[in-house]
Every structure is written in C-alpha cells, then in structure tokens.
Automatic annotation (TrEMBL), chain A:
Protein name: Sorbitol-binding protein /mannitol-binding protein
PANTHER family, alphabetized: ARABINOSE-BINDING PROTEIN-RELATED, DIACETYLCHITOBIOSE BINDING PROTEIN DASA
Keyword Transcription regulation: no
GO CC annotation: periplasmic space
Subcellular location: Periplasm
Main location: periplasm
Automatic annotation (TrEMBL), chain B:
Protein name: Sorbitol ABC transporter membrane protein /mannitol ABC transporter membrane protein
TM region positions: 12-33, 74-94, 106-129, 141-161, 182-207, 238-259
Higher taxonomy: Bacteria, Pseudomonadati, Pseudomonadota, Alphaproteobacteria, Rhodobacterales
Keywords: Cell membrane, Membrane, Transmembrane, Transmembrane helix, Transport
GO CC annotations on file: plasma membrane
Keyword Metal-binding annotated: no
Family per similarity comment: Belongs to the binding-protein-dependent transport system permease family.
Automatic annotation (TrEMBL), chain C:
SUPFAM superfamilies, A to Z: MetI-like (SSF161098)
Membrane topology: Multi-pass membrane protein
Record-linked PANTHER family: BLR7065 PROTEIN, INTEGRAL MEMBRANE SUGAR TRANSPORT PROTEIN
UniProt family annotation: Belongs to the binding-protein-dependent transport system permease family.
Residues spanning the membrane: 12-37, 64-94, 106-123, 155-178, 208-228, 259-281
Protein name listed in UniProt: Sorbitol ABC transporter membrane protein /mannitol ABC transporter membrane protein
Main location: membrane
Domain ABC transmembrane type-1 positions: 69-280
Subcellular location: Cell membrane
Length: 438, 274, 289
C-alpha cells in the first residue's frame, strides 16, 4: 500500500516534471499589418503563462498569405496551427469543415462582449469559427481646415451630393491638393471593396436572386459614373494604382481633402508621429444616395482561426483566446496607449472612458460597425452575404477581374459603359462556369 | 596630335561608360540610400544624402529575424547547386567527349523542361511534398531547386567541357594514362574554372528563386524570398523599411557577385566564345 | 572495344541527369494533364468530376486569352530587343580602355543579382511611383505632370523592369564574345581604311552571332515565364493591358483556385512555348553549331 502510494506519487511528480519539457510549437500565419506585428512583440505574458507553448510566426503580405493558407487548408496540409484570415474566408471555410469550432473558450473570454455584427459574420449555426482580432467598417475622413477654407460643411451623415460638392470646392491642383482620394488599385479587396460598398449605398447589388450579375443596372451605372467623375476631376494623379496604403500616405501628407476608407485608417491619420494633419481630421458616416437607406455595409475583420488539420488544437485555442481577449487590449493600452488598441471587436472597449478620450474616432467607428448589415447588404434582395464583398469562393477571381475593368476605366483606357459591359459579361461567364446560373 | 585625340576620346568614352553604369546601377543605389533614411525622409522627395540612420534595419530585424532565412538561403542555394553539379558533371562530360547524334536534341529538351509555368504545377507538387513529408524541409527544397537549375548547369558545363581540346586527352592516353588518371590529372585542372563559374551562376539563380521557396515553406526552410514577402506592402509608411529589407535580401549575393565578377564573366559565356 | 566501353560508360554518366529531368518533366506534366480534364476547384474539393475538354475551351475563350498571347509576345520581343541592342552597345562601350573598367563592369552587372520580386518592388515604389518615385520627382523638377507609369504604360513599364534585370546577362555574354574577337583582323580592317560602321556590320556582328543566339535562347525561356513582376506592379491591368499567359494561369490557379483551369492553361502554355522553341531553333539554331 505504502509502496503503491509512493510510486503513484512518483509518477505524478514525473508527469508534472515532464509536461514543460514537451514544449509545443504553434505555427502562426499572420498578415504584415501594424496591429499583427505589434502582437508578435507582446506575447511575453502568454508565453510566461504557458511555458510549454512556443510561438513561431510566419508573417506574409496579405495576398501571399491568402494563397499560402488557402492551399494549405484545402489540401489538408496541416502546416499552420493558427491562421489569420478575413471574415470573407471564415463562412466559406467553416462550411467546408476546415475550421475548428471555437466552442469551449475560457470563461473570462466573454464572447457576448463581441460586437454583434462582427460576431455574426464569424458564426455559423451560432457557433464561432474564428475570433476577431480587429474589425473595421468604412467612413469619411476629411480635412476640417480645408473644408472651412473652402466654405463647405460636411454633415455627420453626408450624401454623395454633399461629398461631390465638398470635393470640388476643396480641390486645388496647383497646390497638389486633391478634393477626394478613393481606392483605384484593381483587386477584390482594393477598389472593389470600396466600389461594392459605394454601389450598395446607391441601391445597387452584385447579383439578383438568380445569381445574375447586375452591372447593367441603372444603380451600378450611376454609382460608377459618379465615382469616375469625382476621381477624374478632383482625384490625385495615378489613382488607378492607389490602394488603401497609397491613399493613407497621401492623406497623411496632406494631399487629400476627403478620403473614404476603412475605419482603422482613423488611428493612423490622427497619429501625430505619422501624420502631418493629425489634428485637422474630421470624421463622418459613409455617404449614401438621397433616398437610399444604405451606408455601404462595409465590414471587414482580421480574425484568428484554427484549421481542423492542426495537431495542436488545445494550445492553439489558448492562444487565439488570449490574443483576442480583453486582457490583451489592456496590455496594448498600457504599452502604447489606448489609441493603439485593436479596434472594432469589443463593446467594452467602446464603453471605456479612457479609450473614448484618446480616440476621437471611437464613436464614429462604433456606429459604422454596428449598423453594418452583412446579411443583407443592399436595399434590394440578395442571395449572398457580405458587405463590400460577396461571400462565395469565386469572388476573389471575379472581384479582381471586374476591378481590372474598372481600373482601366479610371485610367481613361475605356469608357464607363464599356467597363460595365465587360464586367457584366466576364462575371456572367464565370458564374455560369461555377454553375450558379443554371 | 594623334595621342591627344586618343587621350581625349578615352576620357569621352570613360564618361559615357560611367554614365551608363550609374544609370543602370541607380535603382539599387537609391534603394541603399533610402534604406538609410527615416520614413519621413524617404517620401520627402528626391535626395541622395540620407541621414544615415539604421532605424529601418532595426525595425526590419525586430519584426522578422534575419538570420534564419539568411542561413536557409545559403544552404538552399549552395546545396542545390552542389547537388546539381554532382549529377551534371558526369552527364556534361559524357556529352562533350562521347557525343552522339542526339546530344544536341537532348540538351534542347533539357532546356525545354523549364518552359512549364511553375504555377500550373503547384498543386500537384504541393500534394507530393505533403504526402512525402518534404513540406517545409530544406532537403525537399534543395532537391527541387536542383531540378529547376539542372538543365542550365548541364548546358553550361557541356559548353565548357567541349572547349577542352581532345588532343590533350589523346596525348595522355598515348603516355599510358589510365582513365582515372586522365580525369584526375589532365582534365580536372582544365575544367575547374568552368565548374566554378557554373557554380556561381547557379548559386545566384537559386538564391533569387521566389516562387517555390515561398509556396513550399512555412518557417523551418523559408529563405530570404519569404522574408521579403513580409515587407512588400504593409500599412502606413514603409519605403525605408522596404528598402532596408531589400538591401538585406540582396546584399549577400550582390557582394558575392562583385567579388567573383571575373569568374562570372567567364561562366556566362555558355560556349559563346569560339 | 575501347570505344564501346567508353560509349557505355558515357551512357552511364548521362543517365542520372536525364532520368532525373525526365521524372521532373513527366510527373508534373502527367498530373497536370490529368487535372486539366477535371472540374477541380481547390475551394470545393469534394466535387472533382471529369469534364473532358471543358477547361481548355473555357481557358481559350477567356476574353483575356488573345490579349495575353499578344502581350506575352510583345513582352518577350520587347525585352529581347532592348537587351540585345543595349547589350551590344554597352559591350562595345566597356570593351574600350576606359578608366575604372572593373567598377563600371560591376555596376552594370549588379541588377542580375536582384531577386525578381525585389526588383519589381524597387521600380514600383522608388522609381516609377507617380507621387514618390524618382521619375516623378524629376518630372516635377522640370514642371511637367508626372507620368503614372503602371496606369498609362503598363506593359512598357514591365518591359523596362524585366529588361533592366536581363541587360547584365546579355551584356556579359556579348562582352565575352567581343573580347575573343581577333585583334589582328580588326587591325587589318583598320589598315584597309574600313569605317567604324563597316567594321561593326562585317566583322563584329557576324562574330557575335553565336553569342546573340545564346542570349535569345536562354532569355526566351525565362521571359515566357515572367509573372512576379506583373503581380507586384500592375496585377495584369489596367484591364488586361499587362496580362501575359503565365499571369493568366496564375490568376486561374491562385485567385480562382481553379486547379483544372490552371492545368489546362499550363498545358496550352507548354504547347505554345514549344512552338516558339521550334520556331526559334529553326531561325537561329544553326548558329549554335
């Protein structure tokens, strides 16, 4: 008896000793944006609390990342334990059962604290398949000083007419000062993200209920023509190669009057270390067309998910819960200030008085995210989900090819009508091939 | 009089040559300069004098460790080239010294294997790598890079060996040298320069390979091409950081190329010289 | 007896390289051929079904298909023209006794050491960027509107970038050919009072024919596969203005994750590349003997 007990205790001691030695290495694929890179430097509390887990990072540019992880997950490769993916991928991959449902998150995770639209976009049958690291909608950022000098006011909820008028008045090309900067670089996540949201706010939609593309509709034509007019008359040169990043630089340099883009940009343009116009930026809601109750419904989030093929589910789950927790937000705030906290995911952040004080764009961001309806992004009926994208696997391809046509029109190489017609026929072709159109 | 003209024209040609050389080198030079600027300076307009800050290099290094991809690049490019030489030297040797009617066809066929667009065969190769456990291993990539560059290696060596005059072989044979001695003492010394330049050129080609090395690696075997892929378009200002990362990725091979420039000039002849 | 022995030894020595390359050619080719008949999308892996020649039809009826073939040819020919002509000119220039010849040569071959994606990034962001590029700075200095290279001249921009990468290669090969030119012949020509142009066309150019052939052959093989530069800079656009065949396949494989379609495109590309190769061998192959 005594002997038995002793040996039992010995065995326990052995296991206790052995556990930390059997260190697990999590391979984490991330995108190379500022928030993700910050996270890599802040993992000490996690590794201290979990000495048996080591973290190995694969940081890649967005497109390369998407190619790599998609190939891996679709071939059941198991190369990664944690993936950084967008809310575009989550429902598609969840449907293929490629992602582990995140059911038993730690009690203090407080999934109810996640903003409802963000959570909805990551859930299937009320189960979370990814947790949001940060989320964004879109809004108007403009230069208060230039607006004042030009004698225009931009209301909190502007219409496209307000925007057009303001852009015109704020343009002074002799001073390299352009009334409006919008995305023009071709890509489903670049110009088409913006144009899809803009089309939504004009009452347009990508497909009708029979999956027939709608580029021949009056709404698309009006939205696209207005876009071209604004960009060609009040926009910067070379707009057809400007994406989020290029426009961010332009705005930070003080060359744009108005910039309509993702809400995360707000913290960059109001950061005095990076932006020359930090104290002159005003914010407003994403515009709509008069009479259309739709403000684009843009919703994007970068999320952490665990592929079903990972061998290290438990450790991976611990990590994703930590990286998207309230504690991590507080840790970032303590190190780099509240303005640097990953935005857009948790109600508690927006209720935090310190955050509200430090981030002048907090209220506008919260409002934009909470009203974003990705389940029905147009005022017309749609067969798909997703706001500034269509959540079907084929969208990357068709979105980019349409983006190419639209960029060509922006560069002046074809007319708006030709671009819309080319888009219509290309998308019809692809959708027929993918058997959506019977 | 004539001498003065020669002198003057020499200066003229020197100026012209330097102008062209600097023009061609300018993009690299400007990248190096930009890597020593702050981000604000980098976009502030044309300026050839940086503030010589190393902050971009520090930022790059703190985001992604440089040394592991660097080591992988060295191992992959050297390893694949050496492996290719082991396979290619005998083949090129045989083709050069006992050519058959089909030798030239075989050489052309070898080159034509390079015409398959890599991206079209990605999924088959990806699956093979997964099933055989070669994914993200240095061995797998070394073999793959060897296969990719093998045609060029064989061809270069072939044109080199062909320049070795056959009479020397016969003279050695007349003196009663065995095949082993023939290879060891007569031919090898003559072939070494050719092999060396082949090696150099292929190290460069393997170092610069940026499709398979990104698609078939995650962490363990990822070389500098993957390192660069994490800097190409992040948020915010990145000109100086991109320049620093680029300089870090190309500097080793640039230095190697510079030091071995003479050897490389010979290696690139592909038997073009007769 | 001795020859037969040598012959079989030679066969043995050739075998590993040939067998390896044969495997490296046949395995992917066979798998690609197989996939090209499947309706196989990576994002819908369950539904891979036999579709006959549908993928081929779908690929060549792509509105971008003929544009892509045209762009591929323009890209290859454009880069070849720039590198061969530029290479000859630079080789002639640095073959002269100039001061600092070694450094000049090093500077000129440097672009060859730069990874294609890095080269594209450098040109896109440092040189041709319409706001921050050096060319834009220069344009502003002269009071001209900066050129938006990738929107206005997408294919030309890519040709410039690729030509920059390959110019050193051409220059080096042509330079070595030039250096092997018999100086006695040159002197004889000079004695006869031949003009510089006559010397160039009758002596130098024929002597370089073989080297030029090598440049064209090797570069064509690499140039047919150019896509990284396009991906980094224009993404094939605007419209299809800078989409080449390889990029079209890339789009099928990596954006649409259409494995069947990409495989069919790959087979089409191989066939076309081999036609080009045969044509090329007919045209310039005799220079190789």
């Amino acid at each position: 008896m005594n002997m038995k007990l002793r040996s039992l205790m010995g065995a326990c001691a052995l296991t206790a000793l052995a556990a930390p030695v059997m260190a697990e290495t999590l391979t984490i694929a991330t995108v190379n944006n500022g928030d993700m890179i910050r996270m890599q430097k802040m993992t000490k509390p996690f590794t201290d609390a979990n000495p048996d887990i080591q973290l190995e990072w694969v940081t890649l540019e967005e497109n390369v990342l998407r190619e790599r992880v998609t190939t891996d997950i679709a071939t059941n490769g198991g190369q990664y334990d944690v993936l950084t993916i967008g809310n575009y991928e989550v429902p598609i991959w969840a449907k293929q059962q490629w992602l582990t449902p995140l059911t038993d998150l730690p009690a203090d995770y407080d999934a109810d604290d996640l903003l409802p639209p963000v959570r909805a976009a990551l859930s299937m049958d009320d189960q979370l398949f990814a947790v949001p690291f940060y989320a964004e909608s879109a809004m108007v950022m403009y230069r208060k000083d230039l607006a004042e000098a030009a004698g225009v006011t931009i209301p909190d909820s502007p219409t496209w007419t307000d925007i057009k008028t303001a852009a015109e008045k704020m343009t002074d090309k002799s001073k390299e000062q352009y009334g409006i900067c919008l995305r023009g670089k071709p890509g489903w996540g670049e110009n088409m993200a913006f144009l899809s949201a803009m089309a939504n706010s004009y009452g347009a939609r990508w497909f009708d209920m029979d999956w027939k593309p709608q580029f021949d509709s009056a709404e698309w034509k009006e939205a696209f023509t207005d876009y071209l007019t604004m960009m060609q008359e009040y926009g910067p040169p070379g707009a057809s190669s400007n994406g989020f990043n290029e426009n961010l630089s332009l705005f930070q340099q003080g060359k744009c009057g108005i910039w309509i883009d993702a809400t995360v940009a707000a913290s960059f343009v109001s950061d005095p270390n990076e932006s020359t116009v930090a104290d002159k930026v005003g914010f407003a809601k994403f515009p709509n067309k008069e009479g259309v109750d739709n403000h684009g419904n843009w919703l994007w989030s970068w999320n952490l998910a665990i592929p079903a093929s990972s061998q290290k589910q438990d450790a991976a789950k611990k990590f994703v819960a930590w990286a998207t927790s309230k504690a991590y937000t507080e840790q970032v705030a303590a190190a780099d200030g509240w303005r640097a906290a990953p935005p857009g995911t948790r109600t508690s952040l927006y209720e935090n008085a310190e955050y509200q004080k430090d981030a002048p764009f907090a209220a506008m961001t919260l409002e934009a995210i909470t009203v974003a309806n990705t389940q029905k992004s147009s005022v017309q009926d749609v067969p798909y989900t997703g706001g500034q994208f269509v959540a079907i696997p084929e969208f990357q391809g068709i979105g980019t090819s349409v983006g190419q046509q639209f960029a060509a029109a922006l560069a002046g190489q074809m007319s708006a009508d030709d671009a819309l017609a080319a888009a219509q026929s290309n998308v019809t072709r692809e959708m027929t091939r993918a058997r959506y159109i019977k | 009089m004539a001498r003065a003209t020669t002198q003057r024209s020499r200066i003229g040609w020197t100026i012209a040559a330097w102008f062209v050389a600097l023009l061609i080198f300018f993009p690299i030079l400007y990248t190096i300069i930009t890597s020593l600027k702050t981000e604000q300076e980098a976009i502030a307009g044309f300026d050839l004098i940086p503030s010589f800050t190393l902050s971009s290099f520090e930022a790059v290094q703190s985001q992604n460790s440089y040394w592991r991809p660097f080591t992988n690049s060295v191992i992959l490019s050297l390893g694949s080239t050496l492996l290719a030489l082991v396979v290619a030297i005998p083949a090129a040797w045989a083709m050069a010294f006992s050519p058959t009617k089909r030798t030239k066809d075989i050489l052309m066929w070898m080159l034509s294997t390079k015409m398959m667009p890599a991206v079209a065969v990605l999924v088959p190769i990806y699956l093979i790598f997964l099933r055989t456990g070669l994914m993200d291993t240095r061995i797998g990539l070394t073999v793959l890079l060897m296969l990719i560059n093998l045609p060029i290696v064989v061809w270069m060596l072939y044109t080199y060996f062909r320049e070795i005059p056959g009479e020397i072989l016969e003279a050695a044979r007349m003196d009663g040298a065995s095949l082993r001695n023939e290879i060891l003492y007569v031919l090898t010394p003559m072939a070494v320069p050719g092999i060396a330049s082949t090696l150099l050129l292929n190290v460069i080609l393997a170092w610069n390979e940026a499709f398979w090395t990104i698609q078939l690696t995650t962490t363990n075997a990822a070389p500098l091409s993957a390192f660069i892929a994490s800097f190409s378009s992040p948020q915010g200002l990145f000109w100086a950081k991109l320049s620093a990362a680029s300089v870090m990725a190309i500097a080793p091979i640039l230095v190697l190329g510079w030091f071995s420039q003479k050897q490389l000039v010979r290696g690139l002849t592909f038997g073009a010289v007769k | 007896m001795a020859t037969r022995q040598t012959q079989s030894l030679a066969r043995l020595m050739r075998a590993p390289a040939i067998l390896l390359l044969l495997a490296w050619m046949i395995v992917p080719l066979a798998m690609t051929l197989y996939y090209s008949f499947l309706d196989y999308n990576l994002l819908n892996p369950g539904s891979a079904a036999w579709t006959g020649f549908f993928n081929y039809r779908f690929f060549y009826t792509d509105p971008a298909f003929f544009a892509a073939i045209g762009n591929t040819l323009i890209l290859v020919l454009g880069v070849l023209a720039i590198t061969v002509i530029g290479g000859i000119a630079i080789a002639l220039l640095i073959d002269r006794p100039i001061m600092g010849q070694g450094i000049v040569r090093i500077l000129i071959i440097s672009p060859f050491f730069v990874m294609p994606p890095v080269a594209a990034l450098i040109w896109k962001n440092m040189i041709m960027h319409p706001s921050y590029g050096v060319l834009a700075d220069m344009a502003r200095f002269f009071g001209v509107q900066p050129v938006d290279w990738f929107a206005q001249y997408p294919l030309l921009s890519i040709i410039i970038i690729v030509a920059w990468q390959w110019l050193p290669f051409a220059t080096l090969i042509l330079l070595t050919a030039l250096q092997s030119l018999d100086s006695e012949q040159m002197e004889a020509a000079e004695m006869d009072g031949a003009s510089a142009w006559a010397k160039f066309t009758h002596l130098i150019l024929p002597h370089m024919a073989r080297a030029i052939t090598v440049v064209i052959l090797i570069q064509t093989i690499f140039l047919l596969g150019v896509y990284a530069e396009i991906l980094v800079t224009t993404n094939g656009g605007p419209g299809n203005a800078s989409t080449n065949l390889t990029y079209l396949i890339y789009r099928a494989a990596r954006l649409n994750f259409d494995i069947g379609g990409a495989a069919a495109g790959g087979i089409i590309a191989v066939v076309l590349a081999n036609i080009v190769a045969i044509f090329l061998m007919r045209a310039v192959g005799k220079n190789l003997d």
